[in-house]
Design a protein that fits this description.
The chain is mainly beta. The chain contains four helices and 13 strands. It has a domain of 79 residues: Elongation Factor Tu (Ef-tu), domain 3, CATH 2.40.30.
């Protein structure tokens, strides 16, 4: 688990193709690795990866074919900056929100414009994730815990303050860029719980008005 508070911006030192998979070497810069052991989890742009080597200036992780197909890690090149966060402990301050490091889908940066010293981004989510994105709710973009400022259909807006721009990779975002999205895990579990016994049925549909009426959450 993670908090969505980026601890350092690292750089891709090397990408090695390995039979369809990729071995990724990350230079971690200011990230303290003194408490990291082989097998520990580190989030790279919001993707939970396992450290398989600790060469001293960073770590090495294997990225599976599935992870490459479902995230933006396949877009990385040597020298690409990346958001980094070590897995939380019971003593970690939870400054963002609970983040699993399991990407739900790829979003796209649609627009950016200055708003005083902040930058406003408009992003678009996959259609299947839109129902989990709520006004003033939480969303993780490339591992960064953020608050949704507005939402219309599949598109949502983020207001990014100067500190976040400086401490993450968000200042590099341009329209067309793909980003890793993880929705609020509470919303995902709540939807599943609301299905009740129907969750065990193959092809059980998502929460809809008819289901809410049937279960008493909405009066007909």
């Amino acid at each position: 688990m993670f908090t969505g508070i980026i601890q350092a911006v690292g750089k891709v030192a090397a990408l090695q193709q390995r039979g369809g998979d990729v071995r990724l070497r990350i230079r971690t810069g200011g990230l303290d690795l003194s408490d990291v052991a082989l097998g520990d989890s580190i989030a790279v742009n919001g993707v939970c990866l396992t450290a398989v080597e600790l060469p001293g200036d960073g770590f090495v992780a294997d990225v599976s074919r599935e992870t490459l197909s479902l995230t933006s890690l396949g877009d990385l090149e040597s020298g690409s900056p990346v958001n980094l966060e070590k897995a939380l402990t019971l003593a970690t301050r939870l400054g963002g929100h609970l983040v699993s490091g399991h990407v739900d889908g790829l979003g796209t940066v649609i627009e950016r414009h200055a708003d005083a010293r902040s930058v406003r981004f408009t992003m678009e989510s996959p259609a299947e994730l839109a129902r989990y994105i709520a006004h003033k709710g939480s969303i993780t973009v490339d591992g960064t815990s953020l608050t949704v400022n507005a939402v219309v259909g599949r598109r949502f807006e983020l207001n990014i303050v100067p500190h976040t721009l400086q401490e993450t990779i968000m200042d590099t975002y341009v329209p067309g860029r793909r980003v890793n999205l993880e929705v609020d895990l509470v919303a995902r579990y709540l939807e599943r719980l609301l299905l009740g016994d129907r969750a065990a049925e193959p092809g059980a549909s998502a929460v809809d008005l008819a289901m809410l009426v049937r279960t008493g959450f909405v009066r007909s």
